[in-house]
């Protein structure tokens, strides 16, 4: 897709991404290595100014009625849906995922805007039964203030909408720092928010090539009262440590090591179909990707064969090509990491059934790969792969499956396949994960709480619980009412 053929909206995005005179950095297409364009390279000083602007807008926005905030959010949602094709093209160009997946991401993200636009009108408090005559006790929920949202490259649109929607619904203002690999999707969404009529400075954007210094400026700033971050556990710990200095409220959606457990009574075709979604969506570059396939001994070979047949039907290529089902990895470093994990597993006795080695030539491609015969003590079993590699491990019984699944510091998503209702309850309750998908390959929904336990994070996104992450609970006691 050449620049000359870009839709007008994408041209508008580039015009807004790099104002005249601004320092800039390049944004590249991972499928081709070509430079798409330039984006403003902002600094810590710019981040502090963005916070000041958002703080200035907070009073008026927080005092808007819920009905008014809902209307503004719905106008934003409608513009996003109207531009879904251009937004998907932009996302694919800068991130690489297949175009249909990109479109699905945009619409999924937009569902959070409608959900929280509606929830804004239901941010209820409480009247508490009094503890003494002449007293009344009540609780109100108030917006926490300026929110810093630091978002990842693997879902550069959906993660912005999932964080910004509840924040502005609650009456907060937001400063977004998108990933340096994928800033264009963020520019596009903020541009549409402006066109939708959201007040100036309710949503601010800081694009940069040096994320550490900008993130530190945001976490150090006393006027930022809440941090919402999606990314690696290592970075999340650093940000949480920085936030401690000003005792900010934090939501952290961090790394995962998701088990995909297939019991011998599972519907193997259902499990194999779900595995394709849980593992190979976005080339395995999701925090909830199935990372360890734990398959009961009696069905291990049958499941491996079904999975291998489905993987053979995948098409690796540029996400803009209609036939592509698996796009590139985000950069060369990602390719090197995945290939190193596969080589180490093979050296330790695992069998590479398909794929296994990086694709020579242009772009950062790694083929869909299946490993069998490995053991849970391999490095690849204890590392978030973030690539299209399905590593299969055998287990004997239910107790062993749960023990191996829980033998990790992570606890984000997990997957269980069985037809035994008793086992569904036992295993779901025993798994130390924030989310359990039973007989399906996805867990994401705007109506459900998304988040992890242990070192996979703090807090929840989506659902009615997600709005409480952006409010303070205030108790008001009134006395002297019997005078």
TrEMBL record:
Domain of life: Bacteria
SUPFAM superfamilies xref list: ALDH-like (SSF53720)
InterPro entries: Ald_DH/histidinol_DH, Ald_DH_C, Ald_DH_CS_GLU, Ald_DH_N, Aldehyde_DH_dom, Aldehyde_DH_Superfamily
Pfam family, one: Aldedh
Active-site annotation: 253
Domain Aldehyde dehydrogenase stretches: 23-476
Protein name in the entry: Succinate-semialdehyde dehydrogenase / glutarate-semialdehyde dehydrogenase
């Amino acid at each position: 897709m050449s620049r000359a053929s870009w839709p007008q909206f994408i041209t508008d995005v580039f015009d807004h991404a790099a104002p005249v005179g601004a320092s800039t950095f390049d944004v590249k297409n991972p499928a081709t290595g070509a430079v798409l364009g330039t984006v403003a390279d902002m600094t810590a000083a710019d981040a502090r100014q963005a916070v000041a602007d958002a703080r200035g807008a907070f009073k008026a926005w927080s005092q808007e009625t819920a009905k008014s905030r809902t209307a503004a959010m719905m106008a934003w949602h409608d513009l996003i849906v109207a531009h879904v094709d251009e937004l998907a093209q932009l996302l694919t160009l800068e991130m690489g995922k297949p175009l249909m997946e990109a479109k699905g991401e945009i619409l999924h993200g937009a569902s959070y805007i409608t959900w929280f636009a509606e929830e804004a009108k239901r941010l209820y408090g409480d009247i508490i039964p009094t503890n003494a005559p002449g007293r009344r006790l009540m609780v109100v929920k108030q917006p926490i203030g300026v929110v810093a949202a630091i978002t990842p490259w693997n879902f550069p649109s959906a993660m912005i909408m999932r964080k910004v929607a509840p924040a502005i619904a609650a009456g907060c203002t937001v400063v977004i720092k998108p990933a340096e690999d994928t800033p264009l999707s963020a520019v596009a969404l903020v541009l549409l928010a402006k066109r939708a009529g959201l007040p100036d400075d309710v949503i601010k954007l800081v694009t940069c090539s040096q994320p550490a210094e900008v993130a530190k400026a945001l976490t150090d700033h006393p006027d930022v009262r809440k941090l919402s971050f999606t990314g690696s556990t290592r970075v999340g710990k650093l940000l949480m440590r920085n936030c401690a200095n000003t005792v900010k409220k934090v939501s952290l959606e961090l790394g995962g090591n998701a088990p995909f457990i297939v019991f011998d009574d599972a519907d193997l075709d259902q499990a194999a179909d779900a595995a394709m979604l849980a593992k190979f969506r976005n080339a395995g570059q999701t925090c909830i990707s199935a990372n360890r396939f734990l398959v009961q001994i009696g069905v291990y070979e049958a499941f491996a064969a079904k999975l291998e047949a489905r993987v053979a039907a995948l098409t690796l290529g540029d996400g803009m090509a209609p036939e592509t089902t698996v796009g590139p990895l985000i950069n060369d470093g990602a390719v090197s990491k995945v290939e190193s994990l596969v080589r180490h597993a093979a050296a330790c006795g695992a069998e590479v059934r398909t794929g296994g080695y990086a694709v020579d030539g242009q772009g950062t491609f790694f083929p869909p790969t299946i490993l069998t015969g490995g053991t849970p003590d391999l490095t690849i079993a204890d590392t978030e792969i973030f690539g299209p590699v399905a590593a299969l491990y055998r287990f004997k019984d239910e107790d062993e499956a749960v023990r191996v699944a829980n033998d990790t510091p992570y606890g984000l998503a997990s997957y269980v396949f069985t037809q035994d209702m008793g086992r569904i309850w036992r295993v779901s309750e025993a798994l130390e994960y924030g989310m359990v998908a039973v007989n399906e390959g996805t867990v994401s929904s705007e109506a459900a709480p998304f988040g992890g336990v242990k070192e996979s994070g703090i807090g929840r996104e989506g659902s009615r619980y997600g709005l409480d992450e952006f409010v303070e609970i205030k108790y008001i006691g009134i006395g002297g009412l019997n005078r």
